[in-house]
Amino acid sequence: MKPEPPADVELLRTYRETVRPLYAYVSRRVGGDWTLAEDLVQDVWMRAIGAWMSSGIPRDPIAWLLTVAHHTIVSHYRRARPLTVDPAAVDLEAPSFSPDVPDTAAIVNWALTRVRRAHAELLETFYFDGKSVKQIAAERRMSERAVEGRLRRARQRLKRVLDRVRDTSRARAPGASRRSTDHAG
């Protein structure tokens, strides 16, 4: 038997309860780019309404929405190639590194779509959710040393992706071919 579609009042109540945490989640992951965050939240909610009209509101709507938001963000950054930031300027090892700037968040998110999911999830938890190594270790029932090692490997993989983009950008830069021939003679 098919569930009854939710009443408008139930959808509105769920929206009011979930929109702020959903927006906060999306906004952190797009570096505070409020226009992009609003577009993505709207997209997530349109998907929710479509799905929930036929299957009903899930028991834990915010979990459902955050999962869809994650996939929506990943899809967005898979399609878009950020050109506004030099990937070489993103130093993941620097203590001051933070993806809180929209352009930095764009390049980091774009690169995260190109590394293994386990690495991407760990880096997202550390950088976007702001969780400490200790918190991540407790959540994943691992030692802090193991988390530090995994974070180091994940950063290395992400850095390789960023380096490839930087190298490609240099090759396409105006005058790149001229510079290489200047040294030949």
Can you describe this structure?
The protein has helices at residues 8-29, 34-55, 61-79, 102-112, 117-128, 133-140, 144-172, 176-182. Helix 2 crosses helix 3 (61-79), helix 3 packs across helix 4 and helix 5 (117-128) crosses helix 7 (144-172). The longest helix has 29 residues, at 144-172. The model is unreliable at 176-185 (pLDDT under 50). It is built from 8 helices and no strands. The chain has 2 domains: 8-79, no CATH class; 87-171, Orthogonal Bundle (Arc Repressor Mutant, subunit A), CATH 1.10.10.10. The protein is mostly helical and 185 residues long.
Under the CATH scheme, which class of the largest domain? Mainly Alpha
Shape: globular
Give me the CATH superfamily of the largest domain: Winged helix-like DNA-binding domain superfamily/Winged helix DNA-binding domain
**Class from helix and strand fractions:** mainly alpha
Keywords:
0% strand; globular; Arc Repressor Mutant, subunit A; disordered C terminus; single chain; 185 residues; mainly alpha
Q: Which SSEs are present, and which pair or pack?
A:
Layout: H1 8-29, H2 34-55, H3 61-79, H4 102-112, H5 117-128, H6 133-140, H7 144-172, H8 176-182
Helix pairs in contact: 1-2, 1-3, 2-3, 3-4, 5-7, 6-7
Concise synopsis of the structure shown:
This protein has 185 residues and is mostly helical. The chain is 70% helix and 0% strand.
